[in-house]
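Me: I hope this is not a bother. Any chance you could explain this protein sequence and its structure tokens? It all follows right here:
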Amino acid sequence: MVRAGCGDARCVMVAACEFDELAFRSILRKDDTVVAVDGGFASLESCGVVPSMAIGDFDSLGFVPPIDGILRYPCEKDASDLELALDWAIGEGFGEIAVFGALGGRLDQTMATIQTLYGVSLRGVKVFAVGADCCVAIVTGGLPGDCAAGVLVLPAGLSGTVSVFSLCDVSSGVGESGLAYGLEDAELTNDCSLGLSNEFTGAPSRISVKRGSLAVFLPKSAAPYL
């Protein structure tokens, strides 16, 4: 077992969907704890990375990984392998979780990933996912004792499309600055497309929410800054 022992420690998970090794290595830090989620073990094995833990029912992988850190679950269960892995990471005290290999592929699985990440964010953990061509950061404001979780700050020099959607019925006090279209103390709801297709301008940018949770869709180039 791995024990983070510090809310600032980071866990990097790799699940079974499409995996970008370059993006993975671009965000990986020396002290990160790497976790394979079921078939994600094969992706890590292909790039020579041995995870500290492997978690799942291993039906998509086809075998139990030959490492010491194993949490195996039955195939018939009420939570996805990723959700079980995220619960483990939170229990181990990780304050930040990055997820690879969980966007793309089946649309229902991607939806399940975003919903699960939303639940993680509500528990006060910083979380984001990186896919084949984009990344998604969950930004939550209004948590007890929260002074920074409701803000995402990105550096100058980024380009591409930014979309921001409310994950709850109403997210209030939403701000977007440094982008082509600004918002100040706005309200976003989860029943419309307002928030779609903003753009980086090359300037530093900031996305914030006072109360509620946002899914922020970004180009993959933003991943090292999340």
